Amino acid sequence: MKNRLMTRVLSAALAAGIALGSMTGCAGSGRPAEADPQAEEEAPEEVPAEEEAAEEEAPQTDDVPAPEEEETEEIPGGDVFTEFTSFSVHDLYGNEVDESVFSGTGLTMINIWATFCGPCLGEMPDLADLAWDYEPARFQIIGIPLDVMASEDEADPDMKEYALQLIDETGADYTHLLPEHELIGLLGRVQYVPTTVFVDEKGRQVGEAYVGSRSREEWKAIVDSLLVPEE
Q1: DSSP letter string, 171-218
Q2: How far apart are CA 54 and CA 72, in angstroms?
Q3: What is the rounded distance in angstroms from the CA atom of residue 168 to the CA atom of residue 161?
């Protein structure tokens, strides 16, 4: 008798739950969504609220396809990503640039991006504004578009032109370097774009490498934490 009573209670509770679920609809639809029998049988697992919030707040990135002949290593937070102490390349306008580009500036942000990367392009207007927040002797920004090269030593003319167009549209008119020659090896650990690293006036990394886009306010807080206080 007791077992029958428990069975009836459980059955009633289950029926009430199904009825309640069938009345739940999407916001803005104007009417409840119809119940899908198959969906009831194959209901997806619920994601804990903490994990869902973490996914929403995570910096946005795009994957950079890794070369088949070698594996790339994900950048551990806090590790030394690379050193830009010795290189000689060209910027997008054909000017020669070497490690002396860092000389005379206390802190340089190197923002590695790609023309196909939405998060990269989305933060570039903020980076352009950020560059104006500081004196050139204290802080500067250098961009490196990864996907503009036709070979190790030659840029694809169409891709270079497209990159320049995007720079003009976003207002990110700071220096952008071609990823050629020595920079190819230096950037070998880039797995996601955007990736950002900071270096001192000798091209040595300061702090950790940052994966993903951020707002102007978030970048400003990071820059301020890395700058040497003025005397």
Answers
A1: T--SEEB---THHHHHTTT--EESEEEEE-TTS-EEEEEEES---HHH
A2: 25
A3: 11
Q: How many CB atoms lie within 10 A of CB 101?
A: 19
Residue 96 covered by a domain: yes
CATH at 170? 3.40.30.10
- Detail the DSSP E strand segments found in 7-71: 62-63
- How many domains does the structure of the chain reveal? 1
Of residues 153 and 65, more confidence is placed in: 153
Instruction: Look at residue 79 in the predicted model and tell me its pLDDT.
Output: 53
Q: Full-prediction pTM beyond 0.90?
A: no
Residue 6, C-beta contacts closer than 8 angstroms, at least 6 positions apart: none
Contact 101, 142 (CB under 8 A): yes
Name which of 131, 135, 87, 109 is nearest 194 in CA terms.
Answer: 109
Specify if 22 maps to a domain. Answer: no
Amino acid at 174: Y
**Assigned domain for 95 exists:** yes
Could you tell me if residue 44 is inside a domain?
no
Give the domain range for residue 216: 62-226
